Amino acid sequence: MAEKEAALPADKRIDFLTIVTPNVYHFDAATTFLEAGFHIVCDKPMTCNLAEAKELKSIVDKTGKVFALTHTYTGYPMVKQARDIVRRGLLGTINKVIVEYPQGWLAKFPRRWSDY
């Protein structure tokens, strides 16, 4: 995809790639598209380990492309509103909060694209 997009005229290709794949694919997708000349918007985590993060920073520096890291729901208006409601005490005293974000389905994915 990166090669085909890069071969298109500038006014026909994507402006940037948004990476919202399982975490283990973030590094490979980011490096592939950065090296093909595209800006990146990646949901956290940007990589699975420090070595990949350092290598990715080096690639960003070398290519001069934008690499933006998002943090899932923190910018959503509904999350900001919920935070405001709690801060203003509109819910009264909160005694307990239970939150789950199960992602067991991610366990089946290989560690790298090349492992398919």
Q: What do these coordinates show?
A:
- With 116 residues, this protein is α/β, with parallel strands linked by helices.
- It has helices at residues 2-7, 26-35, 50-63, 77-87; strands at residues 16-19, 39-43, 67-70.
- The protein contains four helices and three strands.
- Strands 1-2-3 form a three-stranded parallel β-sheet, covered by helices on one side.
- It is elongated.
- 11% of the residues are buried.
- The model has no long low-confidence stretch (mean pLDDT 88).
Number of beta-strand segments: 3
**Secondary structure category:** alpha/beta
Helix content: 25-40%
Gyration radius, rounded: 18 Å
Rounded to the nearest angstrom, the distance between the terminal CA atoms is: 17 Å
- Please state the overall shape, judged from the principal axes of the Cα atoms: elongated
Mean pLDDT: 88
Largest sheet: 3 strands, parallel
Task: Tell me the fraction of residues in β-strands, as a range.
Answer: 5-15%
Q: What's the order of the H and E elements? A: HEHEHEH
Q: Give the spatial strand order of the biggest sheet.
A: 1-2-3
- The stretches of 5 or more residues where confidence is low (pLDDT under 50) are none
Count of DSSP-assigned helices: 4
Short synopsis of the structure:
The chain is α/β, with parallel strands linked by helices and 116 residues long. The protein contains four helices and three strands; from the N terminus they run H-E-H-E-H-E-H.
